[in-house]
């Protein structure tokens, strides 16, 4: 049985390397006073006697024992004995012990770089460009195009005989020739090729130049171009545009689409066709009512378009550029002969089995 140090005995220093006793209950009377600091929990009761202390519940507490190093006592006056009952360290002591073993970490968070695996596998090089997604293309469009070419091989549609490319004087000086191309395009809007060709022939018989139009009065000009569609508006536009060409371009026509569309009565279709025919420069697709109608029937646009300009943008998004030159001539003649606006001749069309709009009877 161990002994308790007398309160009168002076405290002895703890041997070097000895560990402090932890746990334990309240000491019995006559034992050294135990402070409540440093996480020493107190028992619920206290008592006397040599066998043990009696708690409030009347039970005898187990006797206290002295640890091997406790013979010398404690220098700080803390108890040197613990109860033999099972002991768990207090929360405060555990935290203190843990704090002594684990270095403090900064409360301020640190950014951690995370590397993700390449979606292209281990063999992908850093900085390699992502593969381009294939452009949208209409179904069967190449086969449809080849069949339209076959149907247009005879070149006997009105556009082949009386289109804009047949209306100007090919023997005229280049500047005069380009002016005639522009005027024929202005007259062709909402007008059949036969009517446009006849009006251009009458104008050429009077000497169709910038100066001759400026010297002509509006009434005479109207009588010459009648019955083209919207002839009164076209008289006004022709006189205004011709004056601008004389003053700003020296009698020639602009060489860019941006400048052409600024002229009165000149729209995007006319501008792109003028660039193609007059300047031999394919700047875009000329889309008129025929091209607009047929490309929507063939589903050559992602979604249905409501205007020729919308159709032009949709076509240029996927159609190879080397086909832009022929597509207007090809589809205009096809629309004049086979794919008519009303009652299209689907039975005569070679695309009847692969055309989404074909009438199969």
From TrEMBL:
The source's superkingdom equals Eukaryota
The record ties this protein, via SUPFAM superfamilies, to: DNA-glycosylase (SSF48150)
- Cellular-component GO terms for this entry: mitochondrion; nucleus
| CDD domains per the UniProt record, alphabetical | ENDO3c
Would the keyword Cytoplasm turn up in this protein's UniProt record? no
- Predominant location: nucleus
Q: Where in the cell is it found?
A: Nucleus; Mitochondrion
Q: Where is the signal peptide?
A: none
User: Low complexity composition bias: which ranges?
Assistant: 28-44, 92-101
Name a single GO biological process: nucleotide-excision repair
Q: Which InterPro entries match?
A: DNA_glycosylase (IPR011257), Endonuclease-III-like_CS2 (IPR004036), Endonuclease3_FeS-loop_motif (IPR003651), Endouclease-III_FeS-bd_BS (IPR004035), HhH-GPD_domain (IPR003265), HhH_base_excis_C (IPR023170), HhH_motif (IPR000445), NTH1 (IPR030841)
Q: Where is this region: Disordered?
A: 1-140
Needed cofactors, names only, are: [4Fe-4S] cluster
Reactions catalysed according to its record: 2'-deoxyribonucleotide-(2'-deoxyribose 5'-phosphate)-2'-deoxyribonucleotide-DNA = a 3'-end 2'-deoxyribonucleotide-(2,3-dehydro-2,3-deoxyribose 5'-phosphate)-DNA + a 5'-end 5'-phospho-2'-deoxyribonucleoside-DNA + H(+)
E.C. number(s) listed in UniProt: 3.2.2.-, 4.2.99.18
Single GO molecular function: oxidized pyrimidine nucleobase lesion DNA N-glycosylase activity
Basic and acidic residues compositional bias, start-end = 129-140
User: Which chain regions cross the lipid bilayer?
Assistant: none
Q: Which UniProt keywords apply?
A: 4Fe-4S, DNA damage, DNA repair, Glycosidase, Hydrolase, Iron, Iron-sulfur, Lyase, Metal-binding, Mitochondrion, Nucleus, Transit peptide
HhH-GPD domain span: 187-337
State what this protein does.
Bifunctional DNA N-glycosylase with associated apurinic/apyrimidinic (AP) lyase function that catalyzes the first step in base excision repair (BER), the primary repair pathway for the repair of oxidative DNA damage. The DNA N-glycosylase activity releases the damaged DNA base from DNA by cleaving the N-glycosidic bond, leaving an AP site. The AP lyase activity cleaves the phosphodiester bond 3' to the AP site by a beta-elimination. Primarily recognizes and repairs oxidative base damage of pyrimidines.
PANTHER family from the UniProt entry: ENDONUCLEASE III-LIKE PROTEIN 1
- So what family is this one in? Belongs to the Nth/MutY family.
Task: Name it.
Answer: Endonuclease III-like protein 1
Name its species.
Answer: Apteryx owenii (Little spotted kiwi)
Q: Which gene encodes it?
A: NTHL1
């Amino acid at each position: 049985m161990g002994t308790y140090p007398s309160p009168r005995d002076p405290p002895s220093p703890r041997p070097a390397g000895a560990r402090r006793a932890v746990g334990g209950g309240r000491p019995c009377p006559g034992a050294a006073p135990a402070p409540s600091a440093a996480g020493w929990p107190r028992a619920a009761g206290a008592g006397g006697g040599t066998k043990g202390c009696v708690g409030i519940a009347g039970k005898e507490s187990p006797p206290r024992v002295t640890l091997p190093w406790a013979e010398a006592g404690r220098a700080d006056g803390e108890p040197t004995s613990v109860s033999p009952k099972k002991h768990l360290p207090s929360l405060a002591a555990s935290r203190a012990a843990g704090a002594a073993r684990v270095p403090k970490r900064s409360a301020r968070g640190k950014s951690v770089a995370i590397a993700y695996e390449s979606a292209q596998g281990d063999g992908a090089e850093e900085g390699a460009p992502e593969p381009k997604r294939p452009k949208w293309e209409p179904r069967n469009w190449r086969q449809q195009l080849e069949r339209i070419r076959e149907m247009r091989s005879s070149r006997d549609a009105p556009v082949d005989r009386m289109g804009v490319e047949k209306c100007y004087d090919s023997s005229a000086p280049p500047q005069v020739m380009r002016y005639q191309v522009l005027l024929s395009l202005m007259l062709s809007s909402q007008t059949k090729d036969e009517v446009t060709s006849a009006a251009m022939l009458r104008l050429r018989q009077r000497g169709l130049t910038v100066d001759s139009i400026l010297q002509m009065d509006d009434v005479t000009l109207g009588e010459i171009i009648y019955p083209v569609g919207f002839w009164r508006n076209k008289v006004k536009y022709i006189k205004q545009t011709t004056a601008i060409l004389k003053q700003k371009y020296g009698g020639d026509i602009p060489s860019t689409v941006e400048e052409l569309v600024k002229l009165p009565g000149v729209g995007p279709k006319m501008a792109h066709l003028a660039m193609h025919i007059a300047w031999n420069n394919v700047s875009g697709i000329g889309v008129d009512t025929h091209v607009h109608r047929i490309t929507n029937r063939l589903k050559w646009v992602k979604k249905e378009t409501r205007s020729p300009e919308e159709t032009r943008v949709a076509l240029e998004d996927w159609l190879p550029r080397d086909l832009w030159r022929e597509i207007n001539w090809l589809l205009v003649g096809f629309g004049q002969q086979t794919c008519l606006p009303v009652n299209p001749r689907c039975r005569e069309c070679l695309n009847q089995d692969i055309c989404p709009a074909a009438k199969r009877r």
